[in-house]
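Weekly structure sync - notes
Attendees: PM, LS, DV (DV joined late)
Agenda: review two folding runs queued last week.

Item 1: First target. Sequence and structure tokens pasted below for the record.
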Amino acid sequence: MTTLARLQAELGSIVSTDPADLAAVREDKSGWVAAGIPLAVVRATTTEQVQATLRIASETGTPVVTRGAGTGLAGGACGTDGSIVLSVAGMNRILEIRPEDELAVVEPGVINQDLNDALAAYGLWFAPDPASKAICSIGGNIATNAGGLLCVKYGVTREAVLALTVVLADGRLLKTGHRTVKGVTGYDLTALLTGSEGTLGVIVEATVRVRAITPGEVVTLGAVFPDVASAAAASAAVIAARVRPAVMELIDPVALAMIADYLGPDGSAGLPIEGGAFLLLQTDGPAALAEADQAAAVLRSSGGQVRQSTDPASGERLLAIRRSAHPALAAYGEVLIEDVSVPRSRMAEMFERIAEISARTGVPIPTVAHAGDGNLHPNFVIPIDPLRRIGDPMVPDHIWAAADELFRAALALGGTLTGEHGVGVLKRRWLAEEIGDTSLDLQRRIKAVFDPLGILGPDTMFGG
């Protein structure tokens, strides 16, 4: 009996071979389209179905690509030729909320915003916010150790994960972590699995830390600077002043011009965003107003034109400038959203390197950044080619050549290839250059312990 026949016999209608379904799971939000056609899509709704899928895959040596909401930006959840695409998007139940322990237990397909909506009744919230919280799933956040807008104050996803239930490649169930605030028994497999991008196992349940809703008001500041160097310097000065904003985002002049064009004159929030660089800050908590006043003074002394707001509606208009970055760029073509991080003290230098690479190669690189933690998103806007056929690469070689220079520049400044998107497929060719041969060998051996046949995400991180 073939692999497909076994899947259909044991799992029935949750197995799809519809051509439209197979085509849809070959790409994610990165724009990457995997080569070939997957064998099938399995839409699991229970742990037992995940176990059955992996048991069959292990017995037949069939590759498995785990997929959640499909909002990833590194190509790691794209169905490759002949693979089983195991969708856990339908495992979307909130199993437990324990206000007294400040934790929740969820299935991997739970959408971030849905969890926060449920937590609000208890005066709680789930801090990780990858800027796509309305559409991204918690399982995917954990698999990539997602970051986002609030990391500068509240940390990345890893800080919110207490325990995991994971199905291993052969179908066995593994439970890691604890429900307690403290716990140091044995190796920290929860931390290892967080950010493993589906290469070690399939997350079917997560116990996550939640927080009391931050009391006090939220204050939003928008500031326009004559250039990105002064904006980056101002962001560093805010941190040096020991102000810890909840959000601090920076937009370079190339991206800001595109956003200004996209939003039109009514979207400027009262600031001259048609030129220069833009810095957005939000403070929260009981000291929010005092911290905002202190930050505003720093921004003005650094040459910024500042607008400050405690009004939620006008604050949202300032936030909309940052949130409009991707749709504004997408109006010009297909967007490759890249992701590098450098020490905060080197961020201005990284912006300089990006501008230099752009000028020399002739490739526009509009860039936004989580300025509070040194995480930059250089974007490559690729004009839509009506003659491009399905299966043709979206990213031309000259774009990858510019990206290669950009990645090496980040490493030279003491940074990393990816701050939050993950390695996936798109960055695997640079992985060894950052981590070195010894670490690469050790990580491959760790994968072999969890997945001896190498069937889980075989093209992600180490594959290809």
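Item 2: Second target, run right after the first with the same settings.
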Amino acid sequence: MAGNLPEYYFRVRENGAFVFRVDTENRQRRIEMDQIAVINIRNGQIKPHGERDLTEDDLEVIRSWMEERTALLARRDIDDIHRAVDYLNMTTHWVQARASDDQLDEVTDALLLAMHDLRTVLVRKKADRLTQTD
């Protein structure tokens, strides 16, 4: 098992990750993870952990992971939006076909406000894009 492990492990957190160097070359043949850095995806910051000096190899692996993670999160964001469109369509069908008056009373105002807010932002953003291309 130890021979197949990567050299680095990234423990994902909300804004980035903790970076560990994986060590299996010890006398007990245990997997040891030594934290070497903390990274922040949002601002691109890489902070060495403790008194560590990161090597160029460390930095190259970390930067590569950050790029891959950013791309993955972007794909997930757009996938979530496509799912939201599906949920809106399913909600419309539910309202039309199955919702009771009590259920509609419970959700109508919240849905109308959320859809109004979304529509307002979408229209403003579309107008901004149209005026920028002219």
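Discussion on item 2: Helices lie at 56-97, 101-133.
Action: LS to circulate a short write-up before next sync.
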